[in-house]
Each structure stands twice: as structure tokens, then as C-alpha cells.
Design the sequence.
């Protein structure tokens, strides 16, 4: 990451050092924490990509080396399984014996499970990685090693080189290699009405969404940001410890079951004085939303409850209540539209399924349990 300019209204990130020779790389340098739920095929591909950009260490069952040999950098990988019913628990250690597996008998959610993985980790840096991701790397025939085109090392190098940066995120790509927006500004009170809502669909180029998604800043350029998408976030342990509540086992706010938790984490890091950086040259493939897509009603519920919680935390209870009522109104409108299409005989099975999902969400009032 070599930022040479700063987005509008944002403080510059100091130029990173490129010489890592004076940095202590003893012990475990990087812990990779992956929370998984019923996505064995994707998790296997994710771990295979980590295996390809690292190498076994003699005499160590759960540590691996990564990066150039002279760096002596080591990593561990921890998978927290959220009570999967697929093949994950049965096959994980047989296929990847170097992975540390933490089994939960209940679905802890994304934040709580990440805290469990964090508490068990030993690295100076922690990489929170989704199971539906793959580390991008290219083999270079004739080169002494492949690490130079390895996005894991690129991301790690960027944060190690700049002590002011508390967390970094890579450039995310979809499975077809198209760009996936992954760097953000913090939302304003109006942002939530035009982001992931029908208003946003009707007016996709609205100024609030453009501001949130940094539409005025090129994705090919590494720079300071407010937050990055939680699919791949590499953080400095010292930074995470600075925001971890005294009685908590990890830095994540467990009030967010899933969704909006990464915005909150980065918000607290920036409030504590740390910088957040987007590292454009480090690329990660992200097969977005495969776990949550299996339970659409729960996905809608968690996403919108988390949005309301974020509003209450950062904009106050009045804005949170306005947002809750707006979202409920939106679900009622969607239910009515699906009902009309059902009456007209248009794909009735699909309409009935969507109406059932919307009814389940509406029945909760979008209030915390």
C-alpha cells in the first residue's frame, strides 16, 4: 500500500515503510480466524488457498510459515464452527490437520464466534476472514518463490509497515473477477434510507450511497478509509485490545449478531485514534453471502435489526425508531406487492415464499429479542 493522496475530507495515512528488517517477527505473527456455518465446500477452498500461500514448519503441528523465507513470518489458522450440520466437523481436521478447530454446539453468530476465535488466537496480528473467500495468488515460473504475488503477504506487509494503521482490508473480487465494492465512509443518518432499501433501488445513484461507497475515489488506489467490508479484515492486536471492553473476550460488539458489526468495529478503532486502510493491490475473491442465503428470513431480520442497533448506538434512539418504522413500512409494501402478484397468478410459489418471509420479519417488529 503506497497512498500518495487522500480522499476528500479524510486525514492522510502516513507513507508505509518498505523495509521490514527491523521488525520483530518471533513467535506467531498472524492468526487467521474463520467463522463457518454449513459451507464446507467454500471453507475447503478458502483453506486450500491459505495452504497454497504458506508452508509447513518442521516440528509444528499448527503453525505455518508465510511470506519470503528471510522474514521468518509464521501464522496459525483457527476455524470456529457454528454448529454446522454439514461435513465441516467430520472432514476439517482430516483434510487440514494444521488447522485449529473450535466446535460450538450452538450458532453463536458472527461477532460472538469471532470473539471466541480471537480469544484463542496467539498472533500479533489477527486476520478475520470469511469462509467464502479465497486468497488471490499467482505462480510465477522461474521465480525463487511465489510470495511476491500473494495477497496475504501484501496485506500483512501493509499493516506491519505502518504503526498508525490498526486495520486493513483488501480489494474484494467476485467469482467472475469483477470488482466488489469493499471500502466505505461511515453512514450518515440519511444513508440507511437509501442503502439496501427500495429507495436505493429506485435511485441507485443517490448521493448518500455514492458517498458511502466512495464513488468519487478509484478502487485501484490504496488509501485511508472509514471502514472496510468484514469479509477480510486484518488487524493489529494492540489496536483491537485498545477497544476491547474489560470484561469481553474479544473486540467485537456481540449485540450485533451479524451485519453492521464491521462498521462498528472500525468506528471504535478510529475513535481510539487508529487508521483504517484499503490495500488495493491485495486481492481476495469473495463468494458473497452463501451462508446467510440459506436462511433468507433470518438474513433480513439480522440485517435490519443490526441497522437499527447501529442507528441507536451512533445517532441516538430517535433516529433508531424512525429507521425501525421506515423498515417495517417497507416490508409491508413489499408484502402487499407480492400478494398482488400472487393474486394475478404470477409465479405463485415464489410469491408465497416471499410473503411468508416478510410476515416472519414483520411479526418481530424488528425489535431486539
Sequence:
Amino acid at each position: 500500500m503506497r497512498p500518495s493522496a487522500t480522499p476528500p475530507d479524510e486525514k492522510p495515512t502516513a507513507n508505509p515503510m518498505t523495509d521490514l528488517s527491523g521488525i520483530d517477527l518471533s513467535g506467531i505473527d498472524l492468526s487467521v480466524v474463520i467463522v463457518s456455518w454449513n459451507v464446507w465446500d467454500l471453507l475447503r477452498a478458502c483453506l486450500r488457498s491459505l495452504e497454497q500461500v504458506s508452508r509447513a514448519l518442521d516440528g509444528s503441528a499448527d503453525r505455518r510459515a508465510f511470506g519470503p523465507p528471510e522474514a521468518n513470518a509464521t501464522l496459525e489458522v483457527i476455524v470456529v464452527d457454528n454448529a454446522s450440520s454439514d461435513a465441516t466437523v467430520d472432514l476439517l481436521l482430516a483434510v487440514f490437520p494444521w488447522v485449529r478447530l473450535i466446535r460450538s454446539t450452538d450458532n453463536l453468530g458472527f461477532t460472538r464466534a469471532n470473539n471466541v476465535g480471537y480469544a484463542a488466537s496467539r498472533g500479533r496480528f489477527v486476520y478475520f476472514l470469511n469462509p467464502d473467500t479465497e486468497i488471490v495468488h499467482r505462480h510465477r515460473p522461474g521465480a525463487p518463490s511465489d510470495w511476491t504475488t500473494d495477497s496475504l503477504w501484501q496485506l500483512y506487509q501493509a499493516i506491519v509497515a505502518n504503526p498508525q494503521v490498526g486495520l486493513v482490508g483488501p480489494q474484494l473480487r467476485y467469482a467472475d473477477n469483477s470488482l466488489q465494492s469493499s471500502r466505505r465512509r461511515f453512514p450518515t443518518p440519511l444513508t440507511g434510507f437509501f442503502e439496501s432499501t427500495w429507495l436505493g433501488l429506485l435511485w441507485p445513484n443517490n448521493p448518500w450511497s455514492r458517498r458511502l461507497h466512495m464513488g468519487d475515489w478509484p478502487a485501484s488506489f490504496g488509501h485511508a478509509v472509514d471502514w472496510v467490508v468484514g469479509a477480510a479484515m486484518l488487524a493489529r492486536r494492540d489496536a483491537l485490545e485498545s477497544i476491547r471492553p474489560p470484561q469481553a473476550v474479544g473486540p467485537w460488539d456481540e449485540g450485533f449478531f451479524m451485519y453492521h458489526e464491521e462498521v462498528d468495529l472500525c468506528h471504535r478503532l478510529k475513535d481510539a485514534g487508529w487508521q483504517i486502510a484499503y490495500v488495493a493491490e491485495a486481492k481476495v475473491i469473495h463468494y458473497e453471502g452463501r451462508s446467510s442465503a440459506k436462511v433468507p428470513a433470518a438474513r433480513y431480520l439480522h440485517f435490519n435489526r443490526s441497522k437499527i442497533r447501529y442507528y441507536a448506538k451512533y445517532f441516538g434512539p430517535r433516529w433508531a425508531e424512525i429507521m425501525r418504522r421506515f423498515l417495517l413500512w417497507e416490508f409491508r409494501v413489499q408484502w402487499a406487492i407480492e400478494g398482488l402478484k400472487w393474486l394475478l397468478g404470477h409465479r405463485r410459489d415464489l410469491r408465497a415464499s416471499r410473503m411468508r418471509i416478510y410476515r416472519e420479519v414483520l411479526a418481530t417488529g424488528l425489535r431486539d429479542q
Q: What stands out?
A: The domain at 30-293 is CATH 3.90.550.10 (Spore Coat Polysaccharide Biosynthesis Protein SpsA; Chain A). The first helix runs from residue 40 to 52. The chain has two domains: 30-293, 316-364. Residues 1-26, 140-147 have pLDDT under 50 and may be disordered.
